[in-house]
Amino acid sequence: MAFVRNAWYVAAWARDVDRTPRRRTVLGDDIVLYRTRSGDPVALRDLCPHRYLPLSQGQVKDDEIHCGYHGLAFDRTGQCTLAPDQETIPPNARVASYPVADRMGLTWVWMGDAAAADPADIFDLPQYRDPTWGVGYGDALHVEANYLLLCDNLCDPTHVVYVHPTTLGVPGEVSETVTYERTDWGVETARWTLDSEPIAFHKAFGNFTGTVDRWQFYLMHVPSVSIIDFGSAAAGAGARDGRRDDCIQVFSCHFMTPETESTTYDYWLHVRNFAADDESVSDRI
After folding, report:
1. Long-range CB contact pairs, 242-249, < 8 A, 24+
2. pLDDT of 212-243, one tens digit each?
3. Which spans in the chain are helix H?
4. Chain segment 46-56, per-residue pLDDT in tens
5. Cα(171)–Cα(163) distance, rounded to whole angstroms?
6. Would you say 201 and 160 are in contact if contact means Cβ atoms under 8 Å apart?
């Protein structure tokens, strides 16, 4: 299949990119990640052009990566800077380099036309940077499915009653109308459930004593960033009209990176408007 190459994808958690070379496969291509001495991430094709050993099996010295077979060194642009035992470095001794940047605790890579890459286009959630909101970092789910199937799931608020009945859905709940709107960044799918029993998640963290008005907004930023804005407020308190000062709200963030046509990594985290500094809450969630 043809992947969308001119887009930013998560290659790894930023915490996992260090001075040890790390191999990742993104859109079917193998890349190697490491950091310079100043902490900047580097992404190169994971293949030495001399005898085709993966560069991830080499070592990082200073700001360059050295092949583990014959010691050829490559800088962050992919240019060979050292060819041991010979005076001349072949001018075509280079590997592809990819634009790369850290955002939201994640290391993102651009696999398409480098001239079109703008780090300002990387998805940003303002609440992530707000100290009054808490952040809980997850893991990376390796899913044996095409990434579009995950995108489909994360545009669909109707499944939670059946798939997540003990956390995000209320078994037997009457279905409410689902609406959707196309936007310049993708599609927003929405569902309001009014004057209803709180879901188990909101019972655990919201201390509700009566019924609630609950929202589910599924924000799919194409090609593969899904932000689920879900929350509850006391029924009739005006949440649907935008009055959400006294509510529980969570942004469940999913960053889906196609590894191959049939496998996907889903990097996830959540941002919440309660217990901002309580790591035990992150663990419970």
Report:
1. 247/273, 248/202, 248/205, 248/206, 248/272, 248/273, 248/274, 249/273
2. 999 999 999 999 999 999 999 999 999 999 99
3. 147-153, 160-163, 200-206, 279-284
4. 999 999 999 99
5. 10
6. no
| Bridge pairing between strands 8-13 and 106-110 | antiparallel
83, 109, 138: which is closest to 22 by C-alpha? 109
CB 174 within 8 A of CB 192: no
| Chain mean position to CA 15 | 13
Q: Which of 245, 283, 285, 282 is nearest to 135 (CA)?
A: 282
Which pLDDT tens digit goes with each residue over 124-154?
A: 999 999 999 999 999 999 999 999 999 999 9
Angle at 75 between CA 72 and CA 80, to 5 degrees: 40
The answer, as to whether pTM is greater than 0.85, is yes
- Whether 123 and 225 have beta carbons less than 8 Å apart is answered as yes
- The pLDDT value recorded for residue 13 is 98
